[in-house]
Amino acid sequence: MPKQIYDVLIVGSGHSGGMAAGVLTQKGLRVLMLNAGPVPDLEKDRVFKPTHELPYRGFGNPNAHLDHVFQANEFNANTWVNEKEVPYSHAPDAPYNWVRVRLLGGRSLFWARQSFRLSDFEFKAANYPGGAGDNWPISLADLDPYYSRVEQQFRVVGRKEGWPQFPDGNFTAGVEGTDSECQKRMTAVANKMGIPVSRMRAALGDNGLASSLNLSIPGALATGKLDIVPNAVVREVTVDKNTGRATGVHFLDRHTRREMHASARVVILAAGTLESTRLLLNSGIANSSGLIGHYLIDQLYGCTVVAAMPEARDGKANPALIGGGLFMPRFRNLGKDEKRNFRGGYCLPMGTGSTPDAKYFPEYGPALQKKLDSYAGACITGGIYGEVLPRYENHVRINKSQQDAWGIPTLHIEARYGENERNLCKDAADTMEELYKACGFEILVKSDKVNPPGYSIHELGTCRMGDDPKKSVLNKWNQSHDIKNLLVVDGSAFVTGGWQNPTMTILALSMRASEHLAEEMGKGNL
Ligand SMILES: Cc1cc2nc3c(=O)[nH]c(=O)nc-3n(C[C@H](O)[C@H](O)[C@H](O)COP(=O)(O)OP(=O)(O)OC[C@H]3O[C@@H](n4cnc5c(N)ncnc54)[C@H](O)[C@@H]3O)c2cc1C
Q1: Residue 511: helix, strand or coil by DSSP?
Q2: What is the reported pLDDT for 1?
Q3: How far is CA 147 from the centre of its chain?
Q4: In Å, what is the CA distance from 196 to each residue of 114, 184, 392, 441?
Q5: How remote is the CA of residue 524 from the centroid of ligand 1, in Å?
Q6: Hey, CA dihedral for 265, 404, 227, 111, is it positive or negative?
């Protein structure tokens, strides 16, 4: 690595870090990106292997140490962070699913690309009686131009609706299919119940890949202004004791464990919400508010209701009758006079035309096979993405008695869902049941069980932004209140989580913060 003082040093190469690198290099700044893991070989790693070529024949490597990664399997086990190498702890009665990727590109290589904007029901939650949390220092209008550019870059497709709780984006034209009979019936019944029905919004990216590795980093490299150091595990942000300014970071080579220092005029943390927070806590900086690590939020997943359309059973399912998805954006707690036993809202993503899981039937052998044949292609599945209340007590802190493979203290995560989340889930399950029944469907499964916090892989908060340095960690430009040349541009800055998957908002915030930073550096203010 060339010995020099960079203009900006970025820790992390996922969506948030990639976006920052793209913006800053286009503005002519010299940028160094450090990433904890290796560079993936997309050509080689995306090749599909037959099960018989896998050492454990697809049943999974018992030594993979991925206890909390529910989507890990033998095909993809080498992509996730090994929990033995980088462990974390939680109370036995409060499990937390922390799913991490350290390859260059981070989780952007694997995300499902569902792409939504937050609305002012989330940015200005405190202004609404049923709002879930405090106000952000910015509104949808502030982020709108950045969302628009991100949506264009990531080629987001969606149907424009004009609903305030589901803000439309700058969509790429997609192909609208014809609704099946089942979709039409469900839409009519949902609308009668006051539930709006739209379609999923998703980023097409390029050839199905919408990652920093193919959409942000190549442009940054093309400027000649970006240096990337993979396998660089950052341990600490360094600060000049006299000026109070960040000076760079200490990092270790992943393989040799040799410790080095990299210097820059500005440090940007983009290590993914909880890793950025861990770095700040381990550095012991930027925490005059005492709030770093607090107000951990995510979206809650779970709550499954599965039904069958009787007319589609016994081999009668066909594309005209059943098939296609429906997306019902938030419809609760939008009105001023609405009285619920929970705050916030949820959406209902639904699919039709599936075959039910064998576990839904209390039979086995030929009787079970008969059932599965009868219900093949005739099912409707619904779940929720639900809003989680930001609570001070849901937090992370450094676990002083545990270190990772590089001797860096790990995180202890303390997050629990409460009555609000349980009531919200119950409302969602009851609503889905009511909807299905009104459609004439047979209910196969109804569960209002919530998955553990973290399960959605959308961890947010812990360095919330705000105008008051006593009540927030970052200002509205993702800059530390305490250390002006230190920014955090990932999901840590969120004040409320919303029910919407967060990545479009993370990208838009990172773009906005980076452009502001470049402007300020240009004016000599930093
Ligand atoms: C399977 C899956 C499906 C998903 N689906 C969706 C979806 O449909 N919609 C949606 O909005 N979101 C989705 N997400 C979430 C989305 O991927 C994340 O919100 C987003 O990618 C976060 O980007 P990030 O840059 O903040 O963090 P990350 O992608 O986690 O990147 C962080 C980077 O920091 C690096 N790093 C960490 N610690 C250090 C350190 N100490 N030193 C140096 N480098 C470090 C890592 O190597 C990593 O590259 C999904 C995630 C997964 C895994």
Answers
A1: helix
A2: 52
A3: 16
A4: 18, 13, 33, 20
A5: 32
A6: negative
Torsion angle in degrees (nearest 10) through CA of 76, 79, 82, 88 = -110
Q: 257-295 burial, b for 16+ CB within 10 Å, e for fewer? A: eeeeebbbbbbbbbbbbbbbbbbbbbbebbbebebbbbb
429: Cα separation from own chain's centroid? 23
Q: In whole numbers, what is the pLDDT of the chain averaged over residues?
A: 96
Task: Using the predicted structure, report yes or no on whether residue 70 has a pLDDT greater than 80.
Answer: yes
Looking from the CA of residue 114, the nearest atom of ligand 1 is 8
pTM of the model: 0.97
Q: Is 113 in the pocket of ligand 1 (CB under 6 A)?
A: yes
Q: Which domains does the chain have, with CATH numbers?
A: 5-43+76-156+207-296+396-412+456-522 (3.50.50.60), 175-204+299-390+417-446 (3.30.410)
pLDDT for 176: 77
Strand partners, 328: 348
Q: What is the mean pLDDT of residues 193-215?
A: 96
| Res. 84: pLDDT tops 70 | yes
Which tens digit of pLDDT belongs to each residue from 219-244? 999 999 999 999 999 999 999 999 99
Instruction: List, in order, residues 6 or more apart from 360 with CB less than 8 Å away.
Output: 306, 444, 445
329-381 pLDDT, tens digit each: 999 999 988 999 999 999 999 999 999 999 999 999 999 999 999 999 999 99
**With a 6 A CB cut-off, is 108 part of the ligand 1 pocket?**
yes
* Statement: residue 165 has pLDDT above 70: yes
Separation CA 129–CA 343 (nearest Å): 8
Give the separation between CA 125 and CA 293, rounded to whole angstroms.
21
Q: Specify the residue with its C-alpha closest to ligand 1, atom 36.
A: 271
The CA 490 to ligand 1 mean position distance, Å, reads: 9
CA neighbor of 168 nearest in space, from 177, 180, 160, 156? 160
401's tokens: 């008695």
Ligand 1 atom nearest residue 35's Cα? 44
The atom number, within ligand 1, closest to the CA of 107 reads 29
d(CA 136, CA 120): 9
- Ligand 1 within 6 A of CB of 90: no
**Res 237: pLDDT:** 98
Q: How confident is the model at residue 261 (pLDDT cuts 50, 70, 90)?
A: very high
Distance of CA 133 to the CA centre of its chain: 19
Can you tell me which residue has the tokens 């131009």?
A: 145
